[in-house]
Amino acid sequence: MMLMLRQYKMKPITLIAAVLWLVLNVTIIQAGPIVIKDNRVTDLAGTPVLGRGYTISTNTYQSTCLMDIQVTEPSYDFTYLFKSVEMEGEGSLSDVLGTGSLTENFRNELVKRFSKNLDGQQGGVERRYYYHNIFVEINLHSYYASLDEASASMSSSASRLLINNDLPGFFSSCGSYYVRSIGRKARFVSVFTYKTEDQRPDKEFEKTLESQIKGFGVSLKDNAAALKDAALSSIDFARRDLARECSRRELTITSAAFGLGKNENATLISYDIDTFRASIADAFLAMQNPMTGKVSTIEVVPWVENTDFQALTKLDSYIEGENGQELMMYEKKQILSSNAEFLAEITRFDRSLMNRYYKALLCKRYIDTNYKNNGIFKNEFRNRLALNNNGNGTLLLNELDALLTDDHIEAIIKKEQIFMYGQDGKSGAARCMKAIMDTGISRVRYREIFECDAIVRSMVNEENDMIENFCLPVLSDRRGE
């Protein structure tokens, strides 16, 4: 395939300015590191690792193709919060906890155990008590934990792929990007719940509790010595006798930790103020491992910018244009990166179709084997609900079964065959991939290749696919209508 290059006459200064503008702007648009900090990285199903390959178009992690990985020293941000909250409403526990399935489970457990008020008896007299909640949180955000590229090198197997000029094989295994740095967050939250006969929180008690937790007040271990001082004020007396006040108010401590590392000597179980202070210290130590914590951001870099990749890949042997002029190096890198991303996207899309086909097939067999007799639902399963794998809703088991017909399953594999080989069996994605390699993977962008036009438009994933969401079925305790 020959590409027509237009010829322009330009003044030397204008030409230099144009080249600089082109290099700078194209580099910014199509190359350079990319920082990802949305739900693509916060999904707990993924496993980002420094030096691991990554494909942006499909949001998938590939093999780790670097070795001798060293990590730069990270930095940390630390925050501490002590706040009186209600269970519901503005500024409530739901607001301070934030979103996420784990925090939602923690919140629901608290709401289930501690209602807003309760009735009881004391000395034969009916009394009404009110629950109050204090939210205590520590957050640790680590960042600048980055791959030290001066010490890292390409693995031997990845190097062989590049030396043999097997670029499709390299990008299929290693992705078109690699993870250079990771930011992580760890969180330790506790809710102190106590009851009073007054509907309003006991601010003095909470102030005393806060001073003890933060270490500003008299330690409970010093109670014996403190009791000898008859000149102590009433507030000092309350602090000194905090253990008794906590018992009288039936203080409970409920804790949850997110993104902590393993620490053999740490204990996060709290049953009084002293053990809670110890658990905070242990949680802080468990958060400081730069290799642990919930990932909040990743920085990914194109392989074409890696020095080892450039040294092992021969990109300077191609000639292009009607007059035989050679493509500039930055053009070859951009074309290579773009084509590599597209080839990876084709592979992942084809694999997703095959995965959906096999999953549907297994799902049908699973339902037939476990919930039916001779093709008819057993009585106990006729109105059962299947849970959504993403934790959002249910579906009647018989509705899922009605979808899994032989024709529907056959249509999935037919779609895959048409995508890869076309209606005639000679075109499709396979022909597009061959055209990219025939013209040179670093010479012509896939968007300029006729055989790839239809493929770009056909790679549309089915959102909210019932097979993906409900197979293999996990049954709910509830029943449908």
* Annotation, overall tally of beta strands: 16
Count of helical regions: 18
Question: Average pLDDT, to the nearest integer?
Answer: 76
The whole-angstrom Rg is 31 Å
Silhouette: flat
Task: Provide a descriptive summary of the structure in words.
Mean pLDDT is 76; it is low at 1-31 and 216-235. This protein has helices at 12-30, 39-42, 93-97, 101-113, 156-163, 167-174, 203-214, 223-227, 234-240, 242-248, 273-287, 307-312, 329-371, 397-403, 406-421, 428-439, 453-458, 466-470; strands spanning 34-36, 52-55, 60-64, 66-67, 75-85, 117-122, 125-146, 153-154, 177-196, 252-258, 294-302, 372-373, 376-377, 384-387, 394-396, 475-479. Helix 6 (167-174) crosses helix 13. The protein is an alpha+beta fold and 481 residues long. It folds into two domains: 33-202 and 249-314, no CATH class; 327-481, no CATH class. Strands 1, 2, 3, 5, 6, 7, 9, 10 and 11 form a nine-stranded antiparallel sheet that branches. The termini are far apart.
Question: Could you give a short description of this structure?
Answer:
The protein is α+β, with helices and mostly antiparallel strands and 481 residues long. The protein has helices at residues 12-30, 39-42, 93-97, 101-113, 156-163, 167-174, 203-214, 223-227, 234-240, 242-248, 273-287, 307-312, 329-371, 397-403, 406-421, 428-439, 453-458, 466-470; strands spanning 34-36, 52-55, 60-64, 66-67, 75-85, 117-122, 125-146, 153-154, 177-196, 252-258, 294-302, 372-373, 376-377, 384-387, 394-396, 475-479.
